[in-house]
Automatic annotation (TrEMBL):
Domain Aminotransferase class V span(s) in chain numbering: 84-344
UniProt lineage: Bacteria, Pseudomonadati, Pseudomonadota, Betaproteobacteria, Ferrovales
UniProt record similarity statement: Belongs to the class-V pyridoxal-phosphate-dependent aminotransferase family.
Enzyme class: transferase
Family matches, as InterPro entries: Aminotrans_V_dom, Aminotrans_V_PyrdxlP_BS, PyrdxlP-dep_Trfase, PyrdxlP-dep_Trfase_major, PyrdxlP-dep_Trfase_small, SP_NH2Trfase/AEP_transaminase
Name used for this protein in its record: Alanine--glyoxylate aminotransferase family protein
Cofactor(s) required for function per UniProt: pyridoxal 5'-phosphate
Species of provenance: Ferrovum myxofaciens
GO molecular function: alanine-glyoxylate transaminase activity; L-serine-pyruvate transaminase activity
Residue numbers bearing the N6-(pyridoxal phosphate)lysine modification: K206
Enzyme Commission designation: 2.-.-.-
Biological process terms in GO annotation: glycine biosynthetic process, by transamination of glyoxylate
Residues reported in the UniProt entry to bind substrate: R354
């Protein structure tokens, strides 16, 4: 006899509601990507699949703008990509400088400690970029630093740091670099080779708008050499680059773990979409919709957390107006408008909202819905705004941008 272990409620198939996703990730998934995911599963060593893996690596090199042979999607969310960098590059006793200006820098520190390394933390205020001078000072004081790690696009604050400059400084002091590009990839300019980044990881569910659970990574020759020189194997069996390479390397593919086959179909399709659109066009699209959203939010009287020059177009952190119940606003947006936006984290909890414009979610329908819904909810709660001003400002921004683009084409 079997036991049911079931509550009285009948459990039937699960169908999620259709939501508009404008939080810090996941972003909406393009229909073509969803369709690719539902195709029949095949074996992870099927020659047809192996050919697709090669294409995936090529497409990722394009997205990362790198020639690195060791470029592939790690099986797991962005956090796995992060951990893969640290467990392979940090040996017990190694000194690692971590620049922290938000949530994800904090996680990097945790990774260094768990690898037995010694973290040296360069702190910056949440909402401000990493200060290159502070990094240089820390390197001067710690010339034995092995690795410098920082987040390029801090999703918790919507702030972008100057990756090129930070990498340059780290290299001047002989340190390798680990760069978090989870929110950057596909959304804003990133040039792995030109900027000489050593190790970089990203995520599938932000500006690539693919299914969550995959982490594109890329490592240059310096990292490969470092891994080869290791005297003790990495503490992680699953993330050991030496072992993973047996499957993702170019020859004699052997079983390491079962690849997330259908997820990789989806990633392949999302990268084909990116290639069709063109990387620079994708970056420009994120900026276009950010400018319209910004015009609308500011017309409503809202202000940004981050200074304009450091702002991420794909993640808009906006201050919650005095006296507004921020959680109630988010709850109402979800229940009344099927719209998800993000809350503040850590010291910014209760103080900001985070509006994501990532990948497939970066489109004018979403910008207009968001402004309209937010205006409606805020007015309903007694906040003094005129409904419609935000939408008008956003339309105006789109119109100005179109006029500017037309002028540019005419002039060239
Ligand atoms: C989302 C995010 C991560 C973590 O990715 P998961 O897929 O949630 O594990 C890491 N770093 C940054 C900057 C992120 O935005």
């Amino acid at each position: 006899m079997t036991i049911q272990y079931l509550p009285p409620k009948k459990i039937s198939s699960f169908y999620p509601p259709q939501r508009t996703l404008m939080g810090p990730g996941p972003s909406e998934i393009a229909p073509r990507v969803l369709a690719a995911m539902s195709l029949p599963c095949i074996g992870y060593l099927d020659p047809v699949f192996v050919d697709m893996m090669d294409e995936l690596k090529m497409l990722l090199r394009y997205a990362f703008q790198t020639d690195n042979a060791l470029t592939f999607p790690a099986s797991g969310p962005g956090s796995v990509g992060m951990e893969m960098c640290f467990v392979n590059m940090v040996n017990p006793g190694d000194k690692v400088i971590v620049c922290r200006n938000g949530v994800f820098g904090g996680r990097m520190i945790e990774n260094v400690t768990r690898c037995g390394g010694t973290p040296v933390v360069v702190e910056d205020t949440w909402g401000e970029p990493v200060d290159p001078q502070k990094l240089e000072d820390a390197l001067k004081q710690n010339p034995d630093t092995k690795v410098v790690a920082f987040v390029h696009a801090e999703t918790s604050t919507g702030c972008m740091s100057d990756a090129k400059t930070l990498v340059e400084i780290a290299h001047r002091y002989g340190a390798l670099t680990i760069v978090d590009a989870v929110t950057q990839l596909g959304g804003s300019p990133l040039y792995v080779d030109e900027w000489d980044i050593d190790a970089i990881y990203s995520g599938s569910q932000k500006c690539l708008s693919c299914t969550p659970g995959l982490s594109p990574v890329s490592y240059n020759q310096r990292v490969v050499d470092l891994v080869k020189q290791r005297r003790t194997p990495s503490q992680s069996w699953f993330m050991d680059l030496d072992l993973v390479l047996g499957y993702w390397g170019s020859t004699n593919r052997t079983y390491h773990h079962t690849a997330p086959i259908n997820g990789l179909f989806a990633l392949h399709e999302s990268l084909v979409l990116l290639r069709e659109e063109g990387l620079e066009n994708a970056w420009a699209r994120h900026t276009r919709h950010y400018l319209a959203l910004k015009a609308g939010l500011e017309a409503m009287g809202l202000t940004y957390l981050v200074k304009e020059e450091y702002r991420l177009p794909q993640l808009n952190a906006v201050r919650v107006p005095e006296g507004v119940d921020e959680a109630k606003v988010r709850k109402t947006l979800l229940s009344e408008f099927n719209l998800e936006i993000g809350a503040g984290l850590g010291p910014l909890a209760g103080k900001i909202w985070r509006f994501g414009l990532m990948g497939y979610s970066a489109k004018s329908e979403n910008v207009m819905l968001c402004l309209s819904a937010l205006g409606s909810v805020l007015m309903d709660m007694g906040y003094p705004i005129k409904v419609g001003v935000a939408e008008a400002a956003a339309h105006q921004s789109y119109a100005e941008q179109h006029a500017q683009a037309a002028k540019k084409i005419k002039g060239s």
